[in-house]
Amino acid sequence: MATKYIDVPVTGKLRWVMLGFWDNSSNPEGLQIHEVEKTINTERSSSVGATIGASYGPLNASITGETTFSKEITDIYSNTIREQKDISIQENKKVKDYLEVKGGGKLGRYQAYFSAPGVEFSLEVYRQEGTPPKAEEFQVIIKMQELKFISDIQVIYTDNANAKPWDNVREVTGQNEDINSGFGGKYVWLKPTYTSQVSQALTDCRIRIQDNAWSGGNDLAKGAKGKFRYLEFNKGTNNDLKYSEVKLVRGAGQPKSIQEVLGFDVLTTDINKDPGGDYLYLAFKARQALAIDRLPS
Fold first, then answer.
1. CA separation (Å) from 286 to 80, 148, 243?
2. Is the pLDDT of residue 15 over 50?
3. How far apart are CA 210 and CA 195, in angstroms?
4. What is the tens place of the pLDDT at every residue in 199-246?
5. pLDDT of amino acid 289
6. What is the mean pLDDT of the chain?
7. Cα-based distances in Å from 156 to 51, 122, 149, 201, 283
8. How far apart are CA 147 and CA 289, in angstroms?
9. More confident site: 107 or 288
10. Is the dihedral angle over the CA atoms 268, 274, 275, 276 positive or is it negative?
11. In this predicted model, what pLDDT tens digit does every residue of 164-178 receive, in sequence order?
């Protein structure tokens, strides 16, 4: 199925923030030369994942028509919204600079700031003027791509390794993907299914290990001796962090923590807890998503 895209129009604003002001109006004949320590403010903040992130995620931004510093704005805006997470960055660099204020004059130093829904950042663009530069408003088009989230993980049984599904869950380092490996019984594979409907996306996965069979799931230890093992899911509508990617994590020795599985956000408990052998987890990536009530016209 082809990926869907939509264009979302938002209003952007370019404003100027005063960094300093010098008044030489009482000295009409003299020229003031100031050595100033110029502070270059670099700020960038975003909550775009929580404000416009839905079953669609932002790819890039473009400005309709020409406005001041169009390229600088679209480059930073596109990079910011693609991060799809709340961020706040501030950096101050101080450099020596010289400022000339003519006799009887006033002069201010201003820095450009851009803001739009969910995003605000500074530009390394400065003006020295007697009066504040005027703010500008313009339309920005954000191109959005339909996002896919995990809606279910199917348990597939086969009698040999060659019959595994082509789209089963992979192990992060390329190791054995048979859940039942080393314990006999059936070959057991996991296969994710996906949805663009936020309400159907997984927000939690737990490993359920028990002595008796459970009618609500398929046994991960099918045909092996010992306890029954199941996946149990939750699709919490109050949680806007949805699972978007899943991998197996297999290994020997000391079990891993989520901090050691780079790039992933959630790690289940050990599927192989108690019987020994390799540790085996499911690792998930999660991303923010809010359901879009209507598509832009």
1. 18, 11, 4
2. yes
3. 30
4. 899 999 999 999 999 998 999 999 998 999 999 999 977 888 899 999
5. 76
6. 81
7. 38, 52, 20, 20, 19
8. 9
9. 107
10. positive
11. 999 999 999 999 999
DSSP letter string, the chain: -PPPEEEEEEEEEEEEEEEEEEE-TT-SSPPEEEEEEEEEEEEEEE-HHHHT-SSEEEEEEEESS--TTHHHHHHHHHHHHHT-S-EEEEEEEEEEEEEEE-TT-EEEEEEEEEEETTEEEEEEEEEEESSPPPPEEEEEEEEEEE--EEEEEEEEEESSGGG--TTPPPBTTS----TTTTS-S-EEEEEEEEES-GGGS--EEEEEEESS--TTS--TTTT-SS-EEEEEEE--TT--EEEEEEEEEEESSSPP-GGGSTT--EE---TTTTT-SSEEEEEEEEEE----SS---
Per-residue pLDDT at 197: 85
- Give the pLDDT score at 174: 93
pLDDT for 25 equals 84
Dihedrals φ, ψ of 58, to 5°? -70, 140
Is the model's pLDDT at 59 over the cut of 70?
A: no
Q: Among positive and negative, which fits the CA dihedral 47, 53, 59, 60? A: negative
Residues 86-123: b if buried by 16+ CB within 10 A, e if exposed: eeeeeeeeeeeeeeebeeebebbbbbbbbebebbbbbb
Angstrom distance (rounded) from CA 115 to CA 77: 9
Let me know how long the chain is: 297
Per residue in 27-62, is it b (16+ CB within 10 Å) or e — as a string? eeeeeeeeeeebeeeeebbbbbbebbbbbbbbebbe
Cβ neighbours of residue 89 closer than 8 Å, sequence gap 6 or more: 42, 43, 44, 45
